[in-house]
Design a protein that fits this description.
47% of the residues lie in helices and 17% in strands. The chain is α/β, with parallel strands linked by helices and 260 residues long. The mean pLDDT is 95.
Length: 260
């Protein structure tokens, strides 16, 4: 396991839990994102980990945004390099062929919302905290993928949430589809882990290929997307999970998937 200053990694059966901890509010900077990137790289290569949860160890704060002092002191060259690094780090989460769930236990603003958007599921605690991309109120724009991912998630109506309604409460975030489920704060982690364990017992190899085909397919023509699906089907057809799932159906029993 890697050595981290701003996060810990816990394991619960086949589920890994990344807990961010950079007091007071988990402000995003290059070192912090570097550790997040390193944690996901570690878990990508761990065959025993099937599903990943990312959350915060700090009460009421998932990630409250970027380190504003860092941004204010950046040169144009710094801005180019830091934005590219953040984008690449979050894109790796999007491309990781394991399901990633953001358990949002508090404020998720700016870079925190962008991190959550890079995940496959977003479960949020009920409460007075907010989620959103309020960068325009500082005279800047989201630079770590938030514009592109929110646009893909919400379509043209994303514009209003980037320039006007930039911070949403949990209920409104659920209503527009920005988050997938709401839980009482004391239940958030238990419910997220329960869901993650359910997925981890399924055909996780197939889930990873489905994620790949879906995400890459957004940028392809329908014919190229169909070829991507075909290639994915051939790839998954050779897996132990495919053999197990088909045999279990024929034998009228519950499959015992291994994610291989």
């Amino acid at each position: 396991m890697g050595n981290y200053n701003f996060l810990t990694i816990e394991r619960d059966e086949a589920v890994a839990i990344i807990k961010m901890n950079r007091p007071p509010t988990n402000p995003i900077n290059r070192d912090f994102v570097g550790e997040i990137d390193g944690a996901f790289e570690e878990l990508k290569n761990d065959e025993n980990v099937k599903v990943i949860i990312i959350t915060s160890a700090i009460e009421k704060f998932f990630v409250a945004g970027a380190d504003i002092k860092m941004i204010a002191n950046m040169t144009e060259k710094d801005a180019d390099e830091v934005t590219a690094f953040f984008q690449e780090s979050f894109q790796k989460i999007n491309e990781l062929e394991k399901i990633v769930i953001a358990a949002i236990n508090g404020f998720a603003l700016g870079g925190g919302c962008e991190l959550a958007l890079a995940c496959d599921y977003r479960f949020m605690a009920k409460g007075e905290h907010k989620i959103g991309l309020p960068e325009v109120t500082l005279g800047i724009i989201p630079g770590a993928g938030g514009i592109q991912r929110l646009g893909r998630l919400l379509g043209p109506k994303a514009l209003d949430f980037l320039i006007n309604k930039t911070m949403l409460g949990p209920e409104e975030a659920l209503n527009i589809g920005l988050v997938d489920a709401l839980y009482e704060p004391q239940d958030l982690m238990a419910e997220t882990i329960k869901f993650a364990k359910k997925l981890s017992k399924g055909a996780t190899k197939a889930m990873g290929i489905i994620k790949r085909c879906l995400n890459k397919g957004f940028d392809l023509t329908i014919r190229d997307g169909l070829k991507l699906d075909k290639d994915g089907f051939v790839e998954v057809f050779k897996t132990a999970d495919a053999k197990e799932g088909l045999n279990a159906f024929i034998e009228k029993r519950k499959p015992a998937f291994t994610g291989r």
